Amino acid sequence: PLVFQRRFLAARQLRSFPWPELERHLRTAAGPALLLDILHKTVLHPLCVKYPPATKYRRCFLTELIKKHESTAAEPLDELYDTLASLLNEEESTLCYKNYLLPTGEAITLSESTAIISGGTTGLVTWDAALHLAAWAVENPG
């Protein structure tokens, strides 16, 4: 769940998530509890609630979680579907966030606008160096 949490909060590409490993774990009796744990460490995490990634990203992630759950033919998990329903009713915003969890346990949040056009991009590309810069800033206050 922690790998999912870090990648989700940082809005990493969904194909970078360890989906095959999750599918193996979902076939055990602990599968539904694992999915709910991932849900609470990602989409329902307090940091995500306060500083959410793009609505479309959260919808796609949750849809993928639901697909993985449904592939096991297990009983539906109402909390997954309820969360997706609330996201489907949420309007897209031009502001989204990437949250990086530092080794110290603190978080760095970067705000990005989907409306900014800069150098031919949408402004949704965050430098990999931003995480290192944020870590340095936390270690070197003032």
Automatic annotation (TrEMBL):
Record-given protein name: Eukaryotic elongation factor 2 lysine methyltransferase
GO MF, any single term: methyltransferase activity
Record carries keyword Protein biosynthesis: yes
The family this protein is said to belong to: Belongs to the class I-like SAM-binding methyltransferase superfamily. EEF2KMT family.
Keyword Isomerase: no
Residues annotated as domain FAM86 N-terminal: 4-86
Keyword line: Elongation factor, Methyltransferase, Protein biosynthesis, Transferase
Pfam families associated with the record: FAM86
BP GO annotations: methylation
Cross-referenced InterPro entries: FAM86_N
